[in-house]
Every structure is written in structure tokens, then in C-alpha cells.
């Protein structure tokens, strides 16, 4: 019986080592690729976990999930970030998104835009 317990501990240890190795094998890069789809429009609604945007030209409205502690809101140069509270209803935004997570659209990055559909400068 002692041999069987030792064997199970060895197998558990090997599985744990492989799990840790698989997590460390692909390190997260600072500039990870964002969603390739974009949507530009006016913010209708924003909350802690979602944002709803309407394109004034096509009248199409899309909603995007926002993960907790979302901090990918940028200025025109892409270097300055804003907090989520900087986004208000009525602002023009460009949302980079994908639908990998359970088929739902979720925002990867948001750029604050001017009414002329150009990216805003620093505030």
C-alpha cells in the first residue's frame, strides 16, 4: 500500500509541474494583440461591466462587455490612459473588440474621439 500512495504523489507532482510549465511557456507581452474588429460611434450607456455605442450614420447599436478593472482607454497618441469614469454618454469613441469569450463582444481597447470622428488629443 505504501508504494501506491507514493506513486499517486509522483503523478500529482508531474501534473503540477506540467501545469506550471504550460502557464510560464507563453508569457504575456505588454503589447498583446487586441481585437481586430472596430466599431465607432456615440456612447449611449456605460456602466462598470458594459458599454453601448451607436453609429450615427448607420443607426446600428452594439453593446460590449467590459471586464473588471478595465484600463484600456487611450488618448490619440496611445500613450496616455484614462480611467473608465472618463467615458460619458454622448462621447464619440472607437472600440476595438473581439468575440472570443463565450461568443459575446468584449472591448479590448477604447479610444476617445472628437465629434469630427478624429481621435481626441490630450485633455
Task: Describe this structure in a few short sentences.
By secondary structure, this protein is an alpha+beta fold. It has one helix at residues 2-25, and strands at residues 37-46, 50-54, 61-65, 73-74, 81-82, 92-98, 106-113. It has a domain at 37-113: OB fold (Dihydrolipoamide Acetyltransferase, E2P), CATH 2.40.50.140.
What are the SSEs and their pairings?
Layout: H1 2-25, E1 37-46, E2 50-54, E3 61-65, E4 73-74, E5 81-82, E6 92-98, E7 106-113
What fraction, in percent, of the residue positions are helical?
A: 10-25%
Low-confidence stretches: 21-32
* Number of H- or I-type helical stretches: 1
CATH architecture of the domain at 37-113: Beta Barrel
Q: Give the strand tally.
A: 7
CATH fold type of the domain at 37-113: OB fold (Dihydrolipoamide Acetyltransferase, E2P)
The average pLDDT value, as a whole number, equals 75
Radius of gyration: 21 Å
Q: Could you give the order of the helices and strands?
A: HEEEEEEE
Q: Sheet bearing the most strands, described? A: 7 strands, mixed
CATH class of the domain at 37-113: Mainly Beta
Report the structural category. alpha+beta
Question: Can you tell me the CATH superfamily of the domain at 37-113?
Answer: Nucleic acid-binding proteins
Shape, please? elongated
* Spatial strand arrangement across the major sheet: 3-2-1-6-7-4-5
Instruction: Bin the strand percentage.
Output: 25-35%
Distance between the termini: 70 Å
